[in-house]
Design brief:
With 628 residues, this protein is mainly beta. Helices cover 6% and strands 39% of the residues. The strands form ten sheets. The protein has an eight-stranded antiparallel beta sheet with strand order 37-36-34-42-41-40-39-38, with no helix packed on it. The longest helix is centred in the first third of the chain and has 16 residues. 43% of the residues are buried.
């Protein structure tokens, strides 16, 4: 009999522990032993687990299952799932997991009127999964767009995309997207941390704040400023460092191990402070870094270019005489591109006579032609650039700035910010087969010779049940290396809420069949792109005619698509619709609308929806989203 009991205990030890040195199981103070879980099935968004346990007969428990997290050491205060208990084992399936993510798991048992007992920890990694699984488990971003409560410098670790203005984005070798920006923030919180602040992200949704890349005014600025002032017969500047502006950086990867940031420094004051004269100049400078993950590794390379005038030394122009302004080219808002043939070009300009292009030395990043004095009588010195875009030929003061240039599929695309930034700010795009133009809009207008650019790609807007957004421009346009393109910009809340709120916006771009970029109306949230079926299109949509209207927040109106392919409500009521599922193009009232799954940022709680953007035959822009 004793031999039988001893063999039974030995087999139990082998079953629960794999080996046993003692005749008795050590139940500790809890009276329970939980073995480490094993995975019996792992999918893209789920995993099935099993655990064996042993307990003393008198021990009672109230609950048992699994706790799990993406960080080590999960407890019952993390995510949990209750298990099914049978034959001294606990089984359960975890659902709603993220694909290709590593999870830490422990089995638990809550003892009646006692402690919670945990097993040893295991890890598993979910598989790639299907798009349908990913969409079913997708969780939209939860951060608040009105970030005023965390705008202060002390909350910077929580900012994510709060306090973003004039962003520039580059995809680096380490797989991170790095974003840099103008020194502007709610309540000037950025002043505590240097200039040209950076942040980074791997998914374009969650951003880690990095801080300033430049800690003080570069020494070359005052040296170059006073060199120019001496040549103009002016005394040395007495400008204070705190009054300089740090605006609109542009960052590009030149090659592995080399990144360049062109940036704007705006000098305060006037050319002649003793009498009425035009305002001081701006400079574009250059920094380089071998690794942007080292936010302190940006090395200043100095002066690149400054404002240029065709008025010689006749700078006694009233600072409010905009139509007669002293400078013709304004050296802010740089954009940088390396052409298909390997040429390096700097594109810049803001609010003066237009946007200009300057060829650069590829090795140094400096102008390819030596710069002379930035003034001449009757003409701008040629080495300061050639005009590539102007809103109105001959107009010395025009609402266009923030150029961004990219190359795709045979065309150089030039994105332009139009109008005042507080509310009216909107974005246009033109294109050319040559970097120096002529740049032509979708309507055929040659904006190199002078003209209003079309199409409109962003504009102040408002979907139902929301405050909407204004001031959406000065963009960065970039891709992931696989022809997936994105549009980043500031977005401001309307004046009725707080127009000083500047949230960073990232949106997907789709390209029309004839090669024009369409910026999606809802912000990017990494929503799994499950193919959109025709059945999903039936119902109500929030439709916006996004055509240009200065300072107007364009509001949505209901459009209804019926099952019989008619449009039964909205501006296009009485029209028909059809769907090209292969290309995800909805044709409504003859207009091709390009579809995509995105976050419904206006819903509470946020969820996913379907959005569209398209250009009409009359060059109007349309945005919309499916109502939830």
């Amino acid at each position: 009999m004793k031999r039988y009991i001893w063999l039974t205990m030995l087999l139990s030890c082998v079953f629960f522990f794999g080996a046993c040195n003692d005749d008795d199981v050590d139940y500790g103070t809890s009276g329970v032993v939980l073995n480490a879980p094993t995975t019996t099935a792992i999918g893209g968004v789920s995993a099935t687990l099993s655990t064996t346990f042993a307990k003393l007969d008198e021990v009672r428990y109230t609950n048992a299952g699994y706790c799990y997290s993406t960080e080590s050491g999960p407890t019952i205060y993390n995510a949990t799932v209750n298990g099914t208990i049978a034959n001294d084992s606990i089984t359960a399936t975890l659902t709603g997991l993220l694909t290709q993510k590593t999870y830490y798991v422990r089995a638990f048992m809550v003892i009646y009127e006692g402690e919670t007992v945990y097993s040893d920890e295991i890890t598993f990694t979910t598989t790639e999964g299907t798009l349908e699984e990913e969409l079913a488990s997708y969780e939209p971003p939860t951060y608040d767009d009105n970030y005023s409560s965390i705008a202060d410098w002390s909350y910077r670790s929580q900012w994510n995309l709060a306090n973003v203005h004039d962003p520039s984005v580059v995809l680096a070798e380490d797989g991170y997207y790095y974003m840099y920006q103008t020194d502007a923030s709610y309540g000037n919180a950025h002043e505590a941390g240097g200039h040209f602040h950076g942040r980074r992200s791997q998914d374009l949704v969650n951003w880690e704040y990095l801080g300033g890349t430049m800690q003080s005014l570069p020494s070359w600025v005052m040296t170059k400023l006073n060199e120019i002032r001496t040549g103009m017969g002016l005394p040395a500047s007495t400008a204070e460092e705190a009054d300089f502006g740090y605006w609109a950086p542009c960052v590009r990867k030149v090659k592995d191990g080399l990144y360049r940031m062109y940036y704007s420094i705006v000098v305060p004051g006037y050319l002649d402070s003793t009498t009425e004269s035009w305002g001081e100049r701006a400079f574009i400078g250059l920094m380089e870094n071998s690794d942007p993950s080292n936010n302190d590794g940006w090395e200043d390379k100095g002066y690149v270019i400054t404002n240029a005038s065709d008025k010689g030394l006749d700078f006694y122009v009233s600072p409010t005489d905009y139509e007669n302004c002293y400078y013709k080219w304004n050296a802010i808002d740089p954009s940088y591109i390396i052409t298909e043939s390997g040429q390096h070009w700097l594109i810049y300009g803001s609010w003066h006579s237009g946007i200009v292009a300057v060829e650069l030395n590829a090795d140094t990043g400096m102008p390819a032609t030596t710069l002379g004095n930035p003034w001449a009588d009757g003409e701008v010195p040629a080495e300061y650039g050639q005009l590539i875009a102007t809103r109105e030929a001959g107009n010395r003061w025009q609402g266009s700035e923030g150029p961004e240039i990219i190359y795709r599929d045979g065309y150089y695309y030039l994105f332009l910010a139009y109008d005042a930034l507080a509310v009216p700010y909107n974005t246009r795009v033109v294109r050319s087969t040559s970097l120096t133009g002529p740049y032509v809009g979708i309507d055929g207008t040659d904006v190199t010779s002078g003209g209003s650019a079309l199409p409109v790609v962003t504009h102040p807007y408002k979907f139902a049940d929301s405050d909407g957004w204004v001031g959406i421009s000065h963009c960065a346009v970039f891709d992931d290396g696989n022809d997936n393109w994105y549009f980043a910009s500031q977005g401001r809340l309307p004046e009725s809420v707080d127009n000083a709120i500047m949230m960073g916006h990232v949106r997907s771009i789709r390209w029309t069949s004839d090669g024009w970029p369409l910026v999606m109306p809802e912000r990017y949230g990494a929503v799994p792109q499950v193919p959109i079926t025709e059945e999903e299109l039936v119902g109500n949509w929030e439709h916006i005619d996004l055509s240009y209207s200065y300072g107007t927040q364009k509001e949505s109106a209901t459009m209804t698509l019926a099952e019989d392919h008619t449009i039964t409500a909205g501006t296009w009521e009485g029209g028909t619709w059809s769907y090209d599922a292969d290309n995800q193009i909805l044709t409504a009232n003859g207009v091709e609308l390009y579809l995509q799954r995105e976050v419904d940022w206006e819903a509470s709680p946020r969820t996913t929806t379907i959005v569209y953007a398209g250009y009409g035959s009359n060059y109007k822009t349309y945005w919309g989203k499916k109502s939830n």
